[in-house]
Write a structure and sequence with these properties.
The protein is about 40% helix and about 20% strand. It has about 325 residues and is an alpha/beta fold. It is globular and about 70 Å long.
């Protein structure tokens, strides 16, 4: 589906609404208030579709001062964010260049989301690990100020080591599973020699205890996967430092398309692709390659300022003007 309209008409808003309906949260803000139309007290997003031949109906409701409410096929969900484990959706926006250009925390968050999407049972692992690191940090500060015994650190050290090792293993699996597809897609798009590398190592109690004095002095846990990074390279160059913006854009797009292939392979269902302003900086050849990649591989919503931006005929076109969207085809 091609979504067309002039700049500022609301194309990204439409994709954001679909993302909230599919995942339970916005890709632009974590504040629900910002999702609701200015001047309105609430909003509703309804999506209908099919997954594996079975109908899927999602309803998300927002009201000022209240938590989002969501239902899937008529059954209420405990939290709207549960939708992400039920409906697979991947989004590209120009802001996603931060996956390459940004600091290690951005890449850790991205690959942790990959872990959750590919292996939903592991989706809570990053949050669980972050929580126990926070508890250990608090225990470090209490011990260093004399408010508790150092022995009180032991249970948190053990738990950080256990969950940290599991998180490192999950990230290694994600990078190993995604790497070949990333290399292949990047090569198709003209970014030769694309590769991913994660250098995290299993976290042991011995490692944490060996640096206990430094951790007590600083009040923070100074070893573990919360400090790791994933390196993205092409042609032997680290793209964060030595890649052009065009190469960084191709790398992000390659990651997304490789993940889409991986999800389709592992979960037998193609994810919904939301591609915002992905065509504007691609030459004609790469536009054709992208169109071939997404054609017939599930549903994709692609935004552009004009219908001629996509070098193939879309299944349907949605024209967006301020406050309205009309579908044809």
């Amino acid at each position: 589906m091609l979504v067309v309209g002039p700049n500022g008409a609301g194309k990204t808003n439409l994709l954001e609404a679909v993302h909230v309906g599919a995942q339970g949260f916005s890709f632009r803000t974590r504040s629900d208030v910002d999702i609701v139309r200015f001047g309105a007290q609430g909003g509703r997003i309804g999506l209908r579709g099919a997954r594996g031949g079975s109908p899927v109906e999602v309803d998300v409701r927002l009201r000022a001062g209240e938590a989002k409410r969501a239902s899937l096929n008529g059954a209420s969900l405990r939290a709207a964010e549960q939708l992400r484990t039920e409906v697979a959706a991947l989004v590209f926006t120009p802001d996603r260049l931060a996956i390459i250009k940004g600091g290690p925390a951005v890449r850790r968050a991205y690959f942790d989301r990959v872990v959750g999407r590919v292996w939903p049972a592991r989706s809570s692992l990053p949050a669980e690990y972050a929580a126990v690191v926070g508890q250990r940090n608090a225990a470090l500060r209490r011990a260093s100020s004399g408010l508790s015994l150092r022995a009180a650190l032991d249970p948190w050290t053990q738990r950080v080591a256990e969950l940290g090792t599991r998180l490192v293993e999950a990230r290694h699996e994600a990078v190993s599973a995604l790497g070949p597809g990333f290399t292949a897609v990047a090569g198709e798009l003209g970014l030769a020699g694309g590769e991913l590398e994660y250098g995290g190592v299993p976290l042991s109690v011995e490692t944490l205890e060996a640096r206990i004095e430094r951790d007590l002095e600083r009040g923070t846990t100074g070893a573990g996967p919360h400090l790791d990074d994933v390196t993205v390279r092409a042609g032997g160059r680290e793209l964060r430092t030595f890649g052009s913006q065009g190469e960084q854009r191709l790398a992000v797009l390659s990651l997304l398309l490789a993940e889409a292939d991986l999800l389709r392979e592992r979960r037998d269902t193609a994810p919904l692709l939301l591609l915002d302003d992905v065509l504007s900086e691609l030459d004609a050849g790469r536009r054709r390659l992208l169109a071939g990649r997404i054609s017939g591989r599930g549903q994709a919503l692609v935004t552009a300022t004009g219908a001629d931006a996509l070098p193939v005929s879309p299944d349907s076109v949605v024209t967006v003007e301020p406050g309205t969207a009309r579908r044809r085809g």
